[in-house]
Specification:
five-stranded mixed β-sheet; alpha+beta; globular; 45% helix
């Protein structure tokens, strides 16, 4: 139904161009010839509009038809394109994208990352189009001017680029969010939360005071390489059993788990004491629980303006505290990317569409906030969202720094974020993206083992002291020794270069 609506708009625009072209007096020869630019523009406008299908990881927002009609009206006028923006629920995104890639479905752009719809894996398997420097310079010149050059090193796979970087906060820093009214009612001193013991004490206090609510979300959403780590831990391909030890410059299979033992113990404590939802490991509709205040605390990446952003997202006031050091690593740069389908019918047009949205604040904010008057009001130059409004994940839609400031946000938040991007420490292996080819079978088997045990460990489903030896045994049987030896060789060569 949506696709038919967009095509109707496209046809109306094309017919409008044709009708106007047939009106008026006869042109002189000079008017007919015009400039090459005018000729190219006329040719573009008179051709059939190109539809670009973009898959993103989010629940479909309210007012979809009216917002996308406005977006496509502008895209038709400016680019002779339309956008079919397809929202896939977060809990379903991974599975549906794997099916879409395996089945050769019709789509052009998709959200991919280090933590969902794995970018390196999909690129290595040939699902994404290689984006050459020439292709990017020609079709995405605005993005190439805006995006800091050093970040591209963080997304190369075997030396090549297979996605465009969504520009937002590029460093990772752990944080923790707590409902402000609970902090005030319980007289919680958030500055005293400095380690796992003090955090667990606060969560116990909250659980006792609010037995009909959840003290916290659960450990599976926490980044243990960042959380309560003064110096963030370095992992190869984001795999904890492949931790890079900066003291020895060696890959260690066990050290990560040794360093996060208090973390794993806390996850088990939360599960055993009922601090988290019983279905925390499979929970698909977390947003409803957050918007209703049923989940009181949660892990949250820290950044400037985060409290205002959470207020707009969930309608709740939060206190957010930093819980670790900051770092720009390969994982964080790969945390939100947009890839082009290797089978896209219009790959250049897809890149052009992305570049236009990336560099055009007007259409970017249409996608970010919807329609003024319907979805939000402008109050002194700031966005005040309305109830039941359009909401879309800005960090998946090109350049988040295009976003209008929201009511309650600090002035200069984007400038401060970009400054912190530049100042954050670089991971010791930043830019190292291994070649999986020699170990593809073993690596895939090891990832399958980690997938089997990750939720068990991170949601405290079983005693980690029993689980870890069992998991390591399976990893060894899957070929961990070969994986480690090969990756160590590649790391040595990378550091030497």
């Amino acid at each position: 139904m949506k696709k038919k609506r967009f095509l109707s708009i496209a046809m109306a625009a094309v017919m409008g161009v044709s009708l106007f072209a047939g009106c008026g007096q006869t042109s002189t020869s000079s008017e007919v010839s015009g400039t090459s630019e005018q000729t190219a523009e006329t040719s573009t406008q008179s051709s059939e509009p190109t539809e670009i299908i973009w898959m993103i990881r989010a629940d479909e927002p309210k007012n979809y038809d009216s917002v996308m009609a406005a977006v496509n009206e502008k895209l038709l006028q400016e680019k002779n394109m339309t956008l079919d923006l397809r929202f896939i629920a977060p809990g379903d995104y991974e599975t549906k994208m794997q099916m879409a890639m395996a089945g050769g479905d019709d789509w052009d752009l998709c959200f991919t990352s280090s933590w969902c719809n794995n970018y390196v894996n999909a690129a290595g398997k040939g699902a994404y189009l290689e984006l050459t420097p020439e292709m990017l310079e020609e079709n995405a010149p605005n993005m190439m001017k805006i995006m800091p050059e050093q970040f591209w090193d963080g997304i190369k796979v075997n030396g090549d680029i297979y996605a465009m970087i969504n520009y937002q906060i590029m460093y990772g820093q752990a944080g923790f969010m707590l409902l402000k009214d609970v902090v005030e009612e319980q007289n919680i001193d958030v500055t005293a939360i400095t380690d796992w013991d003090s955090l667990n004490q606060v969560l116990g206090q909250i659980a006792e005071a609010y037995p009909d609510r959840y003290a916290t979300r659960g450990g599976g959403v926490i980044q243990p390489d960042l959380f309560l780590q003064e110096t963030p831990l370095s992992m190869v391909m984001g795999m904890p059993f492949l931790m890079f030890d900066t003291e020895t410059n060696k890959i260690d299979n066990n050290k990560f788990f040794e360093k996060i033992e208090p973390t794993l113990a806390s996850y088990k404590l939360w599960k055993d004491n009922g601090y988290t939802p019983a279905d925390a490991a499979t929970l698909k509709d977390e947003n409803t629980l957050l918007k209703s205040g049923q989940i009181i605390t949660r892990y949250q990446g820290n950044k400037p303006g985060i409290e205002s952003a959470l207020k707009n997202l969930y309608g709740q006031d939060y206190v957010v505290i930093p819980m670790g050091g900051s770092v720009v690593n390969t994982n964080s740069v790969q945390s939100t990317l947009t890839a082009v389908n290797v089978n896209s019918r219009n790959p250049e047009k897809a890149i052009q569409m992305y570049d236009y949205i990336f560099s055009n604040p007007e259409i970017a904010n249409l996608l970010f906030f919807g329609l003024e008057g319907q979805d939000y009001d402008m109050v002194d130059g700031h966005v005040q969202t309305k109830e039941g409004c359009w909401q879309a994940p800005q960090w998946q839609l090109g350049n988040q720094f295009n976003a209008y400031p929201v009511v309650g946000s600090d002035e200069g938040v984007w400038e401060e974020t970009m400054k912190l991007n530049e100042e954050a420490a670089l991971d010791p292996l930043f830019g190292f993206v291994p070649d999986r080819t020699p170990i593809e079978t073993e690596m895939a088997s090891c990832e399958a083992v980690w997938g089997e045990y990750k939720d068990i460990l991170y949601y405290g489903l079983k005693d980690y002291k029993t689980v870890l030896p069992e998991m390591m045994e399976k990893l060894e049987a899957a070929g961990l020794s070969k994986v480690t030896a090969e990756l160590q060789s590649q790391v040595d060569a990378y550091l030497a270069s």
